[in-house]
Amino acid sequence: MTRRLAATTVAVAAAGLVLAAAVRPTPTTAQPPATTAALQPSVAAAKPGESLDGTWELVSVIEDGKAVPLDIVKGTMIKDARVVISGPTAALVRPDGKLRTLAFVTDPKASPKTVDIAGDMRIGGKGIYMRDGDVLMMCVRGSDAEARPTVLTSLSGSDTFLMTFRRVAAPPPQPPQPPQPQPVARPAAPVVPAEDSVRKMLVGTWGHQTDEQVVKITFNADGSFAVVKTYKKGFKKVFDHEDRLSGVWRLKDGEVTLSVTASTIREDQGQVYAYRITSINDTDVIYVDQMSGQRRMEWKLR
Hints:
Radius of gyration: 22 Å
Helix content: under 10%
Oligomer: single chain
Structural class: mainly beta
Largest sheet: 8 strands, antiparallel, barrel
C-alpha cells in the first residue's frame, strides 16, 4: 500500500526536460463509463497550447508531504508509470496488464486550472493542475471531501497528493503476454476432528478495515480463497480503488496457509502467507501473522 510521506512543495522547471515526439491519440483507449458523464463540465475546447493530450510519465509523487517511490507506483498501481490522456479520458495499464480508463475532465479557464478524475465506480478526486511545456503538475485530494486543493503542494495531513509528469513519446504496442500456468492445488491432508471443526467455521467471508482500506477475504469449502482490498483515500483510491488476490488455502496444526496463484498486485503473485489461529467462533477470528507477529481480528460477514 502506498506509504504516506513529509510536507514539501515541489517546483519543477520545464528547462531541464527534453521535448519528446508528439503523441498520436491512442485508438484503443476506452471511452469513459456512462456513470461519469455528470462530471464533465460545459467548457470550451482547449487551445492547442492548452491541450493535455498525449503520453505523460510520472517522475514524482508526493502524498501528504511524503515522497512515494516510483517502484511502488509501478508495482501496485501503474505498470509503466505512464498515463495516456485523450480528450475527456485518461488510460493507464495496471500491474496485471489490464487497461484502466478514467474520466479526466479539465477546465483550463479556471484559476487555478481544475481537473476532475473518476473511474467506473464514481471514485476519484478533485484537483488543480499547471502545465509548463512538457511538464505537467497535478495536485489532487484523495478523499471524498468536497474541498478542492488551492495550491500545488502536498502538506502533511492535507489528504492530497502532488504528481509531476513529463511528456514522452508513445511506446510501441506490446504483444499480448501468454497466460501463466496456474499451480495445481495439492489434495488436502486429513485433519483431526478439532481442525475439521475450525475448517468448517472458517468457510465464509471475513473482513476488517483500517484508516486506509477495507479488506474482505472469502474462504471457500473447496480450498480456494479470494481477497478484495478496497482503498478509502489517497493516491491508490483515485488510480486503483481496489486490488484482488486469489489462490488456495489449507489448515494444518492450527495454522492457515494461503498460497496466492493470481493477484492484481505483482509482488503478491506466487507468495505464501501463514497465520496461526488463536481464537475462533461464529462471529470473529483472531490470528497472528507468522511473518510479522502482528495480531489481528477478522469479523464474520457471511
